[in-house]
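Predict structure. Chain length: 200.
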Amino acid sequence: MSKDDLLKLIADTAYNVGFGAKKHMATFDIVVKVPGLIRFFSVTIGIYSLIFDSLSSKFLSASLLVLGVVSLYISFYNSQKEEYEVAGVELIQLFNELKKLYYRTKQADEEALPELSERLKDIEDKYYQQSISKQILFSDWYCHYKFFWQYQIDWVDEQKHFKLFRDKIPLSFSATLLCLLIVLICWIFLPVANNDLLSL
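Prediction complete.
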């Protein structure tokens, strides 16, 4: 295996490990922080609805109930939150080891490549052992933010050449935004069109 091939393999593994680490931490963050935010938001709306009648609408009440269901869904992960944190921290450590391995490989001669390749295999084995496959809903979207916008990944990008819409923004997020935009346009313009037809 050539040095360039090994560098690409290290970057591929680093992407998987780093993204996995951030996905575990995203699940941990969602489980820890979101229920508190939902409670704060619900109590705040409840208090202000005593003053403002417009906040006592059926739509807002239904929305608060949906948020309660979301909080209930998140609570299913509560007993495992420490496991996600531990796995996330261990994967971050592996990611940092891969960074060191990457720079060692860049400076290594051909004779050192088999040893470096073996070290890469060891890190990959640890990654597969430490990963938790079940992640919470929307952790993938949050993970993209944490990995691509908060993390120092220039050395991985050196090999992977990440693109904005291809890699940094999740496809499911883009599709959801597009669907919401279509629904919003239909909601705004269809009643206007129907009213114009009725007036003819």
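Summary: The chain has two domains: 3-162, 170-200.
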